[in-house]
């Protein structure tokens, strides 16, 4: 089962997404939630880094629940969450 004990996150300008990490025992997986997905969750979010990180922090539980649904153990190193996941 994937868990999200690490509250670290960062904005990746190249991918236009917020990156965060989950852990399944000793396996670490990277997750990216795209800007448009954050805008779907919180429509008043701006496109600047600070606003996107704030939207992520304000909706962490919802985002982590969606990430757990797309996670499949050992199949990939990273997972993308898009607007359709919300």
Automatic annotation (TrEMBL):
Source species: Bradyrhizobium yuanmingense
The protein's name: DUF1488 domain-containing protein
Pfam short name (any one): DUF1488
């Amino acid at each position: 089962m994937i868990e999200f004990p690490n509250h670290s996150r960062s904005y990746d300008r190249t991918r236009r997404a917020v990156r965060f990490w989950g852990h399944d025992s000793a396996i670490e997986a990277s997750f990216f939630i795209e800007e448009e997905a954050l805008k779907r969750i919180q429509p008043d979010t701006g496109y600047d880094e600070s606003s996107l990180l704030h939207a992520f922090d304000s909706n962490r539980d919802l985002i982590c629940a969606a990430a757990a649904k797309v996670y499949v153990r050992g199949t990939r190193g990273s997972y993308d969450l898009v607007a359709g996941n919300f």
